Amino acid sequence: MLWFRISALIRKDLKDVLKNPSVLVPTLVLPVVLCGLIPLGFTLALLLLPTANLNLGPLEGLLKVYPVPTGFSTGEAMLFIMLNYSFVPMFLMVPVMGSVIMASQGIVGEKEHKTLETLLYTPLTNEELLVAKVLGPLLLAEVLSFVGFALFFVGSNAVWLGFKGFSAGLIVRDLLWIPVMLIVVPVVNALALGLALLVSLKAKTFVEAQQKGGMIMLPLVALLYLIGGGVVIVNAWLLAAIALVAGAGGYALLRNVAPKLTREELTRSL
Amino acid sequence: MAAIMEVRGLRKEFAVAGAGPTGGPPVVALDGVDLQVEEGTIFVLLGPNGAGKSTMVRVLNGTLGATAGSCRVAGMGPGDPGVRALSATLTESAHLYENLTCADNLKFFGTMYGLKGKSLEGRVAELLATFGLTDAADRAWGACSTGMKKRLQLARALLHDPKILFLDEPTSGLDPEAADQMAELVVRLCREQGKTIFLCTHNLPLGEALGDTFGFLKQGRLVLQGPAQQLIDAAWTDRRVRLRTSSGVREETWSHEADLAALVRAAVAAGESVYELTPLKPNLNDVYRSVMGLPVLAKKGGNHAVVSD
């Protein structure tokens, strides 16, 4: 396995994403909206609007479930819960979309633009092709999720500190974010990638691959609602369960896809 | 001359999705093909669309495996990446990256062939200059004209100085002048640089002009193979001659050259003036049409004969 060939292919795929607005825009929009604009909007809304007599209704129970710091108003407590727990699924959506888009572009996009055939005629081995087409989207998605998290962490805390002063401490501060970013995000990313590659083997167009691969967003949207509604509580057990299920699914998918990502199979799918 | 490609009893099937757990019956793309190509020659594989020409190339360059039979290219078996390292394939349907510049495309593919650093930069500059594309080095491939695109595709194929070139319809989409230039280049690559060219086409005049040996592929079977003259002589069973005399034009049959003199003598003896005697010899096109079961086209002032199978 020659790494200079793998890295050249990854760099080419990244360059392809950067130079293609129809691929680049959805790749960048999601982290900006989910990790930047939405958290910032909620932070500003709950800090600016009068929330002293806020009636939370059935969500009142959330205040007892999550470790809200003492001395927080109802609005501040809700903000704390949202930023530290309710938004977790949004951070799973960012890498998922990133890897689905890049994996789709990397296989189906090449098929669609008739460049895959040229690539298959080079001495690039099946293993090098597989590694490049898995590693590239994985790295891009990881970078996107960390950039998104940095945007979220810095943006939300900056606004919070701007309003409350440094003595209030950070609003995004639960240590659960560490396993979320270091374990859960990469594992869910691998699952999305396996699905995207599986779809890419059969799909004829980038849009078709993106739509089918994007189906993995549905359980994440459901999770977002369940957490937001207080049906599911974010804690170490939930994260472990997500990591286990996604890890097993991702492993099974990638094992299933890897033998199919061969020159013969790809040529036949052209 | 040594054989650089040897194929024996090659069969390639494709499974077809269909009803039932095993799908439909497989499609046979190549059926018992025997083929030999000598090093440093131009082999032209002729056949209609769907005959299996592209599959043949893909099996030879190791992109597809064989269902049965043997296939050796430069001593290597099918699927050996070494085949792709010493060969290059240029097909109609294999494009370059539209968003990358001409130079970046060459650099990327050069890396795939193991070129690095200054040798890669030098090779890219050299090929851009050879193909008259230096000024277009920073232009995206997608923004180039068809002729420029084709030239860059060929430049890409020559990056690693391959010993074997698989060319599938290399002149399609080109205007006559650009097609002639491409054809001249193919001949030069073979005659001056000793490259072996495996050319697939359904463009008979192009194939006939370039080829040393020919193969006719029909529904996955190589029905005829050999040098043009050998194929023509073998197919020339119906020996006829066109005789134009003062009485008009007629066709006569003959077996030996002595018969031609006898025909003229007989015409003169009958009081006719003989103006022209033309043996109706088939050309490669006639042989091809006969083998493929196509009707022979009547050509204005042509010099063809009906070929019997």
Describe the structure.
The complex is a heterodimer of chains A (270) and B (309). Chain A is mostly helical. Helices cover 76% and strands 0% of the residues of chain A. Chain A contains 12 helices and no strands. Chain A has helices spanning 3-18, 21-48, 62-65, 74-86, 88-112, 116-120, 126-164, 177-202, 206-213, 217-228, 236-257, 263-268. In chain A, helix 5 packs parallel to helix 8, helix 5 runs antiparallel to helix 9 and helix 8 packs parallel to helix 11 (236-257). The longest helix of chain A is centred in the middle third of the chain and has 39 residues, at 126-164. Chain A is elongated, with a radius of gyration of 21 Å. The model of chain A has no long low-confidence stretch (mean pLDDT 87). Chain B is an alpha/beta fold and 309 residues long. Chain B is 34% helix and 28% strand. Chain B has 10 helices and 12 strands. In chain B, strands 5-6-7-3-8-9 form a 6-stranded mixed β-sheet, sandwiched between helices. In chain B, helix 6 (176-191) links the parallel strand 6 and strand 7. Chain B is globular and about 80 Å long. Classes of the chains: A mainly alpha (270), B alpha/beta (309). Chains A and B meet through helix 1, helix 6 and helix 12 of A and helix 2 and helix 3 of B.
